[in-house]
Amino acid sequence: MEKIVDIIEAMAHEKNISLDSAVDAFKEALIKTAKKCTTYSSDFEATVNMSRRDYTVEQVITVAKENDERFQNAPDSVISLEEAHEQYGSDIELGDQLRSDFILEDYGRTASYNLFKELQYHIQRKVEQDLFEKYREKVGSVMIGTVNRVDDNDNTFIEIGELKGILSQRNRIKGEKFKRGDTVKALLRYVSIDPEMGMFLELTRTSPKFLEKLMEKEVPEIADETVQIMSSARIPGQRAKLALKTDFPNIDPIGAAVGVKGVRINAVSSELSGENIDCVEYSLIPEVFITRALSPAIVQSIKVIPGTEKKAIINITNDQKAKAIGKSGINIRLASMLTGYSIELNEIEGVTDRTGESSGNIPTEAEKTTNTDALADLFK
Q1: Is the CB of residue 175 less than 8 Å from the CB of residue 273?
Q2: Residue range 147-154: average pLDDT?
Q3: Which domains does the chain have, with CATH numbers?
Q4: What pTM value is reported for the model?
Q5: Which contiguous run of DSSP H or E holds residue 200?
């Protein structure tokens, strides 16, 4: 028996799994082997004592009512109360478990061979399970690996630790090309198991979460949560917007994210193939937040439709409309994704100068001083 326990310890060391996992695999192997030697409907329990360096296997038969469904599904694991009384005495009750030692050695070489094969199988399952749990805990974090190959479908295969990662074309920034030996950073989306490919990691470089994680690594204030990323939006490889917030009055969230001479934001932009990143300050007031999100456009007025529709109607002069929409509609799309509001632009006459004042339909002084709807949420 000591040799078998030594084998368990050796396999745990070789496969780089914990001794507890190896012992659990051995218990499962013992139970499977015992069932192969008897019947698959039998019930067994295995115990391993590492201090005494031995193990025991017991067959368990439960006393059950005659209409118990286990008499149909697992007849060798149950016995009726009447039969138990006949065989073991009248002090037996329903639910009692009748245990008897199962000596595996009595079944010869066939049992030993089956045990070894079962142990190999269950150890390998434990290795895979440990790997799965290890990487599942890292889902949502940035992984760094080396490109191993690129297939005919332009999927990039990346070596990351013990597993391979797959960066498909749809999860890659448009225009990016990788070759064998390149070092790649990507976000781990999830761990998957495929019958043909085995266990692999699905990676992405297009997720807004990837941008957030890169900012977290580059900006200490975001890493220690003195500056928080409240929301983010990306059109990968082109432009992105981040909404930042801080509860510390002495910290400028935009300045912290951008860095001296833009060194921090430029480092992240470089990793994202030159993606242009705009940072705006978050506000609890939807009107203020949406106005900031539409930057660099200057809006004249904004009306948020109450209810679950989450829609905002923006009055904007014709010279600012193109800025609000952006090239191919990119600015308004990002602003909508960032704020969660559907944005409708209403063009009005006039021209807005750099101070934000319009030379067109200018509100009267009374309107300026009495219309405080946009600030109502401040006093709730």
Answers
A1: yes
A2: 89
A3: 2-136 (3.30.1480.10), 142-204 (2.40.50.140), 207-282 (3.30.300.20), 286-380 (3.30.300.20)
A4: 0.74
A5: strand 198-204
